[in-house]
Amino acid sequence: MQMIKFFCCCFVALFVFESCFNSNSKKEDNSVYQKIEKLDGQGVYEVTYTEDGQISAIKSFTNDTLNGFSYSFHENGNVYEKAEFKNGKRIGHNLIYNEDGMLAFYRYFIKPGKLVFRRAYQNGNVVKEDGGFIVLEPLGISQEQGDSLLSIHITTIIPPDCYNVTTDIEVIDEKHNILDSVQLIDQEVFVYDMQLNNTVRTVLVKCNLYESLLDSVTIVHREYAMNNMLKILAGEKDFLYKHN
Question: Using one digit for the tens of pLDDT, what is the confidence trace for 57-68?
């Protein structure tokens, strides 16, 4: 008789446990739902809500593809991720936050889906960093009246915790003579043009970035001798590009 009571108690306990487990699983499965909202002239936004009506994500679409800014949120309402999309892929500044609102990760995509820089934060301090602050992309070489016109697209990546960023750019020939120089202050995108004599066969683009932090102490954050060699092909409107 005692054995029968024991098995009955085990069965009841198992039934209660399974009921609780299935109840929680069902609640999690139905915890969010979508609502499509269209704002005139601004595309279509998909807004995702939690079961209690709190917004968990806002995504921007154009022709059923992610385009524009998108946001997602922690359960406490603080922002989890700020991202911009182009043709379904992340582009530009990308920020991920902890639940307490402090920045956890920063990433920069120079082109859709092409990550070139990332930082990891802990308690507001940088703990890890990959990639470079300065990205050079050659636009082309064109011939004008016997000389060559060199065009370079320069992107200076400025994370949220950087202030008063100054970028010094020098163009040097194979004999280490300075051909030209330019200085950018708090400027993220710049197209650099300069005239090159056709006797110049190779140029080195050297970039230094200086960052003035919150304590107003200017430091050399990192020196860039990027060895971006632009090989000018005499008589042709093209060049070879090597990134070391």
Answer: 888 888 888 888
Q: Where are the domains of the chain?
A: 32-131, 134-242
If you ran DSSP here, which 8-state letter would residue 133 be given? S
Structure tokens at 197: 């004599």
Query: Residue written as tokens 């993220």?
Result: 188
Q: How confident is the model at residue 105 (pLDDT cuts 50, 70, 90)?
A: very high
Phi/psi of residue 147, nearest 5 degrees: -105, 170
Give the homologous superfamily in CATH for domain 134-242: Immunoglobulins (2.60.40.10)
The full length of the chain comes to 244
Q: C-alpha distances in angstroms, 108 versus 78, 134, 135, 161, 240?
A: 22, 11, 11, 14, 26
CA distance 138 to 148: 14
Q: Residue 88 to residues 16, 30, 56, 208, 210: CA-CA distances in angstroms?
A: 45, 26, 19, 34, 34
Q: How far apart are CA 88 and CA 65, in angstroms?
A: 5
Give the CATH class of 32-131. Answer: alpha beta
- What digits encode the pLDDT tens for the residues 173-196? 777 788 888 887 777 888 878 777
| Whether the Cβ atoms of residue 142 and residue 123 lie closer than 8 Å to each other | no
- Amino acid in position 48: T
What distance in Å separates the CA atoms of residue 139 and residue 233, rounded to the nearest whole number?
15
User: Which whole number is the average pLDDT over 21-34?
Assistant: 33
Could you give the CA distance from residue 230 to residue 225 in angstroms, rounded to a whole number?
14
In degrees to the nearest 10, what's the CA dihedral of 232, 237, 243, 244?
-10
Instruction: Please give the backbone phi and psi of residue 146, each rounded to the nearest 5 degrees, phi first.
Output: 90, -20
Strand partners, 34: 48
